[in-house]
Amino acid sequence: MPKGSCLCGAVRFEVEGDFKDPVACHCTRCRKLTGHYDAATEVAKVSLTIEGQDNLTWYQSSGKVRRGFCTTCGAHLLFDPARDWISVAMGAFDAPTGTTLALHIFVADKGDYYALADGVPQTPQ
């Protein structure tokens, strides 16, 4: 099962079963949260086990979405849109995931300091 953690290891997670190829989000909120853009995969909430939840803090970034990060090291880990799935940051996984970036979203909001020339499909919003 794929496993991962925050930078300091205070929050650890495990995903049971398969998950989707990741999506890279270039929206302003994700860029400001991560310092660049966010790449994450969707997993069913019932498939995600989190250890160290007392070190996990939630930030309500909009009326519909909250984002989870480690209280100790500040690592961004989760995107929860209050549905039956949750997004997990790809950079937090410990080992190779066997996935390939599937899509760039919100490219109309991307930073002006980088180009997207990887051939992955893009959507403006």
CATH topology term = Metal Binding Protein, Guanine Nucleotide Exchange Factor, Chain A
Terminal Cα span = 32 Å
Indicate the percent of residues in helices: under 10%
CATH first level: which class? Mainly Beta
Question: Would you kindly provide a written description of the structure presented here, covering whatever features stand out?
Answer:
This protein has one domain (3-109): Metal Binding Protein, Guanine Nucleotide Exchange Factor, Chain A (Beta Complex). It is globular, with a radius of gyration of 14 Å. The protein is mostly beta strands and 125 residues long. The protein contains 1 helix and 10 strands. The mean pLDDT is 95. The strands form 2 sheets. A 7-stranded mixed sheet has the order 6-7-8-9-4-3-10. A 3-stranded antiparallel sheet has the order 1-2-5, with no helix packed on it.
